[in-house]
Amino acid sequence: MNNDLKGKGNFLGLVPLIAFLIIYMSTGIFTKSFDNMPLMVAILLASGIGLALKKPGEKKPTTFDERVNMYCKGGGEQTLILMVIIFILAGAFYGVANAMHAVESVTNFGLTILPSNMILPGLFIIGCILSFAMGTSMGTVAALTPIAVDIAHKTGFGLPLVCGIVVGGAMFGDNLSFISDTTIAATRTQDIPMKAKFKANILMVLPAVVINLILLSMQHAPNLNLAATHNYNIVNVIPYILVIVLSLIGMNVMFVMTLGVISGVLIGVIHGDFTLVGSFTVIHTGMTWMEDMSIIAILVGGMVALMNYLGGIDWLLEKLTRKTKTARGGELSIAALVSLMDIATTNNTISIIATGPIARDISDQFGIARERVASILDLFSSGFNGLLPYAGQLLVAGGLAKVSPMSIMPYVWYCILMLVFGTFFILIGWPKFQPRGKGPQVGEGKSLEVGGM
């Protein structure tokens, strides 16, 4: 650990974060529903507490107006606003894709080509494909759970098992999709291209995917005969293919999202799903789905700025890395921090946004490649989010299947394997990537090297 970081910071700077966790968690526990305390309200209340605090020992104490200016600058930080714009574009894309039946076509195409004797691995693969294409775990769970319930009734597989498969597949895409808000948050907070994070992340989760498929293929049921016709139009899949291909070749994500929306609108108009004028309403509807997340991101940015001013970020960084002398220890600290935040907030995106700046500091301090940091943030937050019985994914799956979310939790094998292999790859220090140093790194994807450092 660098000596210039020792002794810096103040625990007082963590008061806004602690206040947020107490407000959010206590309301959810006492009312038995975390929906009773919206994240936006809890963060706003915690921000108010942060604005009321003054940094101890200042020669010239700041005024309330000065702290408000700090808050606004933090919420309007360039990278954060860019992330908000990408959130909105991703919402527009999903709105158009849903309205022109691209989501339905992706699902039905997978079910059509699926061999009946591989129904469970196939269900997981469909969940992976759909969540990767949609960029949302909640949307995937909502779309696939009714199908999974039908499969369970026709095959004799248990409802908790098929629901666990759906949630696992959903978290695959939430972790890796180019239009997932967690991917956007992880890459923007670390200032790296999406394809760089994808290359690191896919290597870390691939063993979990393979082992999960093997375990699912070993499950047996009395009846595996699923004779059903699933209609789809391959043309409707084009916007998803376009988004995936353009993202992989490294095109700017804003161009990718824009082209995805335009292609979806053109196909939707040609197929008569909506008119050209009607597409504007469809786009706006999709954007509104991301409004809460965008506003929350801005509020978190302001709150983090106050925490930084009060010394909370430096204090937390010093405590996390006090006994850490290696990159491995730094990575374990990042994994622990984002995991605890996700367990407390049940929101992997907010966990990444809140811990991203701290993780970036740890990355620069110990020479950890930003690709690995972004992957760790996304992997551990997504893994825990898929296992929390009070998080949205299990609540939706349990509600649609009419089973307890607790009964589903042991069957989300993929998320369990994600956490196991995430920890394993931190401990062995693989895959290795070349650290790029401090400062913005967008567009430097060519420096990424797999292998030795």
UniProtKB/TrEMBL annotation:
Q: Per the record, what is one GO cellular component?
A: plasma membrane
For this UniProt record, the keywords arranged alphabetically read as follows: Antiport, Cell membrane, Membrane, Transmembrane, Transmembrane helix, Transport
Give the matching InterPro entries.
Na/H_Antiport_NhaC-like_C (IPR018461), NhaC_Na-H+_Antiporter (IPR052180)
Pfam families cross-referenced by the UniProt entry: Na_H_antiporter
Q: What transmembrane ranges does the database entry give?
A: 12-31, 80-103, 123-145, 157-178, 198-216, 237-270, 295-317, 373-391, 411-430
Q: Which family does it belong to?
A: Belongs to the NhaC Na(+)/H(+) (TC 2.A.35) antiporter family.
The chain positions of domain Na+/H+ antiporter NhaC-like C-terminal read 68-190, 237-430
Give the primary localization class. membrane
Give the range the annotation lists for the signal sequence.
Answer: none
The entry lists its GO molecular-function terms as: antiporter activity
What membrane topology term does the record carry? Multi-pass membrane protein
Where is the protein situated, by its record's location annotation?
Answer: Cell membrane
Q: What is this protein called?
A: Na+/H+ antiporter NhaC family protein
> What species is this protein from?
Clostridium aciditolerans
